[in-house]
């Protein structure tokens, strides 16, 4: 098993290069060790790619497990409503002892013990309220299913974004390390020339200042890596080892151009927020039906069979089996205004659900359009940034050559170098902006699922 605290190996560099208190960084490193020990007990191996981590999250994420148990519990409500429409059969029994003390002393005291035992049946014949309750429970069960699917989608989104967060911070660190090595080599050369009296002190101060700045950026990025890995470990329940870096440039053809209409149609059919809002309207309307049912008569079939026994001499003729069957009806005339007020309340709740549905409908379409346009925009940015990286690489090399032959100053060299590495980081950020926009689009259309994870995993994983 690999050391889960490997990512903290630059701690000394971090402490020296930034103003962050050393005890804070050491505490952060210890936290990463604790996460590694805790989550390492739940996994026999370190998952290195997005798909493995995603599968681990479905097994070890306690929040998802809690939500699944809540789903199972709420699912039973439909069975409970069905049970109210089925025959209700129960045992009935009683035993009663009577003792009589007459005022007339000439009359002897008497007592009797009567026992009854039997079966009772209660069957709903015409119960609009119970049927409405069942229909309402069915709609609520559908909402319950959608909520679980939405919660699973949220976990998928969290794992993907946490994984991308680790990759992005690693990629930025790799770029900063390359810049640090280049500036350090330049600084070492300048220090040697200073000792020889070839360059002035001001030239070395420029390189030293830039070197310190990159050290500070590296320090902050090391902390960001620790935080990103801890978040990913929290979601997946496994310790996070080194993840293979992102290879640039990435594939920017995940979504076809001029396909916005298709995504808008998918949103209307599959977006979980929209589906839930539609079901909430149906639930509110069915609740109105339930409230109206209180105006209707309630008709039930009742029946029982009972065995009676008494030890009193004069009542023994009543011993035997008693059969009873009948119809019970209840028709409310006045309930203190509760039914009328309940109907008014239900009407308001229905209008509220309809208004929310209208907003959710517009919002989901807006989010889909926004995600799609962002995706296309980031794709264009990636192409432009790749061209800028290639161009700045040539400028950086030419400026360095110019400095070596004495036609460019150290300031020119540092500026060209800084611009080159800045465009590299901009390309990295644009690439991750594209991937996050793709996640946004999949979420908006209700397609953020296993297939999305597989697509991203294939894109991010190095070919074997």
TrEMBL record:
InterPro entries: OMP_efflux, TolC-like
Molecular function terms, GO-annotated: efflux transmembrane transporter activity; porin activity
Pfam family, any one: OEP
Primary localisation category: membrane
Designated name of the protein: Channel-tunnel spanning the outer membrane and periplasm segregation of daughter chromosomes
Phylogenetic lineage: Bacteria, Pseudomonadati, Pseudomonadota, Gammaproteobacteria, Moraxellales
Homology family: Belongs to the outer membrane factor (OMF) (TC 1.B.17) family.
PANTHER family: OUTER MEMBRANE PROTEIN TOLC
Organism (species): Moraxella macacae 0408225
Cell compartments where the protein resides: Cell outer membrane
GO cellular component terms given for this protein: cell outer membrane; efflux pump complex
Domain of life: Bacteria
UniProt keyword terms in alphabetical order: Cell outer membrane, Membrane, Transmembrane, Transmembrane beta strand, Transport
């Amino acid at each position: 098993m690999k050391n889960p605290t490997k990512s903290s190996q630059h701690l000394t560099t971090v402490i020296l290069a930034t103003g962050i208190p050393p005890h804070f960084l050491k505490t952060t490193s210890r936290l990463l060790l604790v996460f590694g020990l805790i989550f390492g007990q739940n996994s026999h191996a370190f998952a290195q790619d997005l798909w493995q981590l995603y599968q681990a999250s479905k097994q070890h994420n306690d929040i998802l497990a809690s939500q699944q148990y809540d789903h199972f519990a709420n699912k039973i409500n439909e069975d409970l409503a069905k049970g109210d429409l089925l025959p209700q059969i129960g045992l009935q029994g009683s035993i009663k002892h009577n003792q009589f003390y007459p005022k007339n002393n000439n009359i002897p005291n008497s007592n009797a013990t009567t026992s009854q035992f039997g079966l009772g049946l209660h069957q709903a014949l015409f119960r609009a309220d119970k049927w409405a309750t069942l229909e309402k429970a069915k709609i609520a069960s559908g909402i319950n299913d959608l909520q679980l699917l939405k919660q699973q989608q949220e976990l998928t989104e969290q794992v993907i974004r946490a994984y991308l967060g680790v990759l992005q911070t690693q990629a930025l660190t790799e770029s900063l390390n390359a810049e640090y090595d280049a500036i350090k080599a330049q600084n070492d050369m300048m220090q040697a020339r200073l000792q020889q009296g070839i360059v002035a002190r001001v030239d070395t101060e420029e390189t030293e200042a830039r070197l310190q700045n990159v050290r500070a950026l590296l320090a902050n990025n090391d902390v960001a890596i620790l935080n990103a890995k801890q978040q990913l470990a929290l979601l997946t329940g496994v310790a996070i080892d080194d993840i293979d870096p992102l290879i640039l440039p990435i594939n920017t053809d995940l979504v076809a151009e001029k396909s916005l209409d298709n995504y808008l149609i998918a949103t209307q059919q599959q977006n979980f927020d929209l589906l839930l809002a539609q079901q909430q309207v149906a639930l509110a309307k069915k609740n109105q039906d339930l409230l109206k049912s209180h105006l209707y008569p309630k008709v039930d079939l009742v029946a029982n069979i009972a065995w009676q026994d008494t030890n009193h001499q004069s009542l023994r003729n009543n011993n035997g089996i008693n059969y009873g069957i009948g119809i019970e009806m209840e028709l409310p005339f006045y309930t203190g205004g509760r039914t009328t007020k309940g109907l008014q309340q239900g009407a308001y709740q229905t209008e509220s659900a309809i208004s929310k549905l209208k907003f959710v409908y517009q919002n989901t379409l807006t989010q889909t359009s926004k995600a799609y346009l962002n995706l296309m925009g980031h794709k264009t940015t990636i192409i432009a940034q790749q061209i800028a990286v290639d161009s700045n690489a040539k400028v950086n090399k030419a400026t360095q050559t110019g400095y070596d032959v004495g036609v460019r100053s150290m300031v020119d060299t540092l500026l060209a170098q800084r611009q080159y590495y800045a465009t590299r980081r901009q390309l990295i950020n644009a690439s991750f902006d594209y991937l996050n926009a793709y996640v946004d689009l999949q979420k908006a259309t209700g397609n953020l699922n296993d297939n999305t994870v597989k697509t991203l995993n294939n894109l991010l994983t190095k070919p074997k």
